[in-house]
Amino acid sequence: MDEEVRALTERLRRESGGTAAYERLAGPAGHDELAGVLVEPGQPLWAREVAAFRLGLAGDRRAFEALVLLLNHRDPPRCVSAAYALARLGDPRTARAAAALATNELRAAYALHPVRLLVELRAPESVPALITALRRRLRPHDPYRRVALACVEGLGALGDHRARPVLNEALAHPVLAEAAVHALARIPAQR
């Protein structure tokens, strides 16, 4: 079992108190039952997360909205599990949603996992969104250095020449300089 799935399972079992409802959702519940949890009023967050995660891994697009909400959650472990499931969901809306979250300046504190998801997806939206997010993080005294670093590393991994200008700007920031050098080295020279 993947480490992410095991960590999610343990965390949600603790949150639920190990109830029979948790065991059902984590085990024998079918897709329709899981999808019902996502729309039923009064469901606890742990139940919605279990349902969305399982549906996402199964490629059931009914999980999309719930997973996007969890990707934008203030609790990092929920973001991690949502990103994991979204990367496996196969929904064409995922990259656009992740790009919107990564570039939403009002939610910059929660942009780390959408940025990482964009890198994993390697979608057409990925490079433009990472460039935009990084450019905003290059302001003096920006508090979101982890997001900036994820953008730099992601742009290097994607290896797109459009990232060169913003990565060159990142060289001037001591916290990002080393990562920017490595990222620039990964971008093939243009002919």
TrEMBL record:
Q: By its UniProt entry, which Pfam families does this protein fall under?
A: HEAT_PBS (PF03130)
Which positions, given as ranges, span the membrane?
none
Gene Ontology molecular function, alphabetical:
lyase activity
Kindly indicate whether the keyword Lyase belongs to this entry.
Answer: yes
Q: Which keywords describe this protein according to UniProt? A: Lyase
Name the SMART domains for this protein.
Answer: EZ_HEAT
* NCBIfam families named in the record: PRK08937.3-1
What is the name attached to this protein's record? Answer: Adenylosuccinate lyase
Q: Which organism is it from?
A: Streptomyces phaeofaciens
